[in-house]
Write a structure and sequence with these properties.
- With 211 residues, the protein is mostly helical.
- It contains nine helices and no strands.
- The protein has helices at residues 3-13, 16-24, 31-55, 61-79, 85-106, 114-138, 148-173, 181-184, 186-210.
- The protein is globular, with a radius of gyration of 17 Å.
């Protein structure tokens, strides 16, 4: 098996770690963990469908693009609980409109939607940093590393900050370069693996706090 494909399979399978742990510890009973459960299920379903389409030599970008929209909405909701309602509604309505216009009219479903996903990166990077600022300002706990949402914010920031450049330039660097796509996405898969491990830590901290 080629190294890029091996890394891709490990990255896809890594979602089973937090998914198993959140079910085993029954943390899905709590609102924020339930949202995280939905995200993990969507991630697993997207990877599974993408794997099937890949083996059938079919285009998986329509699924990938929609998953990234779902991931954006859930991550945004998780980290903006204390935001004014008007700001939250603006993002929940505005970004899907941008996504749909780009998906159907500009870049189309069959290519990676770099425009809308780059915007998602910038928004969620800002949201994560704002959460850290609020955390430092309010200091709700003596040890912030025991706050589950702290780890979720780290996972979100790690994934989206790391992938920003890739999302921006991917379509340009792979244009007409057959075989380069898998190599380009090694970094994405490593970041996705890291995100899933960090989410597992968030679930563990939730379990500790409730226990």
């Amino acid at each position: 098996m080629q190294i890029p494909l091996l890394i891709a399979n490990i990255s896809s399978g890594s979602v089973l770690i937090p998914l198993f742990w959140i079910v085993f510890t029954r943390q899905y009973r709590y609102p924020k963990m339930k949202l995280l459960l939905y995200l993990l299920i969507a991630s697993f379903g997207s990877d599974l469908i993408g794997y099937i389409l890949f083996n059938l030599s079919l285009n998986s970008y329509p699924i990938i693009n929609f998953f990234l929209l779902i991931q954006f909405l859930i991550c945004f909701k998780l980290l903006t609980e204390d935001w004014p309602s008007i700001l939250k509604r603006s993002a929940w309505i505005g970004f899907p409109i941008i996504f749909i216009v780009n998906y159907f009219l500009i870049q189309k479903p069959t290519v990676f939607n770099s425009y809308s996903n780059s915007i998602a990166c910038l928004i969620l990077m800002f949201v994560s940093l704002h959460y850290f600022y609020t955390l430092l300002r309010d200091l709700p706990s003596e040890n912030v590393m025991r706050i589950p949402l702290f780890w979720i914010a780290i996972g979100v920031l790690t994934y989206y900050a790391g992938n920003l450049l890739l999302f921006i330039i991917n379509n340009y660097l792979t244009l007409g370069a057959k075989g380069s796509h898998a190599t380009m996405w090694i970094m994405h898969n490593l970041l996705n693996f890291s995100k899933n491990i960090i989410f597992t830590i968030a679930i563990w901290q939730s379990y500790r706090s409730k226990k």
